[in-house]
Amino acid sequence: MELHVVINGRKDLAGQLYKQLRGAIESGRLAAGMQLPPTRLLAEQLGISRKTISDIYAQLTYENFLIGRVGKGTYVNARPSKFLRKQTASDLACAETVNAWRSLHSPLPDPSLEGTVRRDFVGGATSKGQFPHDEWRRCTQYALRQMQKSVGFYSHPEGLPALRSAIAQHIAFCRGVICQDSDVVVCNGTQQALDVISRVVLEKGSIVAVEDPGYPPARLLFASQGATVVGVPVDKEGLRVDLIPDQTRLIYVTPAHQFPLGMPMSHERRLALLQRAEELGAIIIEDDYDSEFRYEGLPTDSLQSLDERGLVAFVGTFSKTMLPELRLGYAVLPPAISEAVMKAKQFTDWHTSTLPQWALAKFMTDGELQKHIRRCHSIYAGRRERILSRLNGDLSPWLEAIHTTAGFHIAALFKHPIDLKLLIELARKVEVGLYSIEGFFYQETPRSGLLMGFGSIETLDIDPAMDRLRDLLLQMDER
Fold first, then answer.
1. pLDDT > 90: what percent of the chain?
2. Which CATH code is given to the segment(s) 13-76?
3. pTM of the predicted model, to two decimals?
4. Domain parsing of the chain, residue ranges
C-alpha cells in the first residue's frame, strides 16, 4: 500500500516531503505506531533519490517524530497530535437542522451501553443460543459460492429475486398476505422500509397518524422528515379509527400485536381502518414485527389480506425470528407506490448486501426458517406461560397483564401508583432488567407499567427474577 504524498513540480523535493510527513504526523493522519515505507520503496513511488528520503527520515527521527527499530523499520513516534479548531454546529449555515437532529431523543436503550444483567426482560431481543448457527453457516457458504459466480457489479435495488420469492411464499403461508414476488422489496430492517415508504408518501407538514402508545423509532422517523405526527389512542380493540384526523396521509399500525401493549386489533376495527384510509386517500403501514409467534385463539388475517383497494404496505423483519444483527427486513408494497418506493430505495442505499440475502434465501427455501420458528415457538410459549402464571399469581396485588395472543413480550400495568424509576434501579442491583412502558406514550397520558420481553431471558431464570421483583415490591410497600 502506497503512502499518500503529493509532490508538486521538481523544486525543493526534500522540503515538500518533509512538510507533508511532519504535517501528517502532527494532524494524527499518520497515527503513532504506524510503519513508514522503506526508503527504497518510497523513493520509487515518488521518483526521489533514496538518500533524500533517508535524510528526511533522519531529520524527523532527530525531532522525535519518528523512531527507528533495528531490523524492523521506521515508525511514527507516540506524541500528542496538533489539531486545528474544527467548525462547531453554530458556525454552519445548517446549524438549525443539525441541532434539531442532535436534540432527538434516542428511543430505545442500547444494552451494550447500559450493561447487561443476568436476568433481563428486555423486549425485542432473542437468545443466540437458540439460533441454528451450523445451518446458517452452511447457507452462508452457499452465498459465497453464488457471489463468486456473479459478474462483480451492483445488485438489484429491490433485492435478489430468490429472496423476494422466498419472502412472498413465506408470508403468504404464515400470514395470508396476498402478493407477487414483484411486490416485495428487501430492506435493511423495518426501519429502512419505513424510511423509503415515508419519503415517497410524505412532504413537509403532512399528517401521520400513529398509535399512542406506540413504537418511538417510527414516530421519530416520520417527524424527522418534516411530517406532523399525531398520536391516536388505542383501546382493547386497537387503534381508535374514529380519532384519525382529516387530511392524514399515512397511518402506522401494529394490528397483530400492538406495540407495546400487546392486544390484537379486532376484525371490525380493521375493516373500519381500511374504510377510513380509503376516505382519506391515505397509505397504511402494517408493521407485522413478531406475529409468527401465536399462542392462543384462531389465526387472524393480516390487514393487507383484507385490503381490496391497494392501500396497505405490509412491513416485516427477520430481526425477531432470527438475529437483529442481520438487519434484514422487507416491505410488500401496494401497486400505486411500488415503483416510486423502489427508486427511493435505490437512491438512498442502492441495494442491501447480497451475502446475507443469498444466505437467507437458501435458509428459507431449505425449510430452516420454519424449523427455527417452531423451535422458538415452543420455548417462548413456555416462558410466556410462566410469566403469566406469576403475574396472575403472587404478583397480582401489584400488576395486571394485558391480554395478548402473539409476539414475545407482555405488557403489565401497575394497579397502584409506584416509584417505577426506583424499582428499575433496585432491580438492576439484584441482576434483574426491568423496562417501563411510559416512554412509549406520545400525546396520551403515560400509564405506569412494565414491558416484559421473554425472547432472551432463559426459562430457568424467570422464576428467580420474578421472586426478586416480588420481594422488591414488598419492600417498597413497607417503606
1. 68
2. 1.10.10.10
3. 0.85
4. 13-76, 114-126+371-478, 133-367
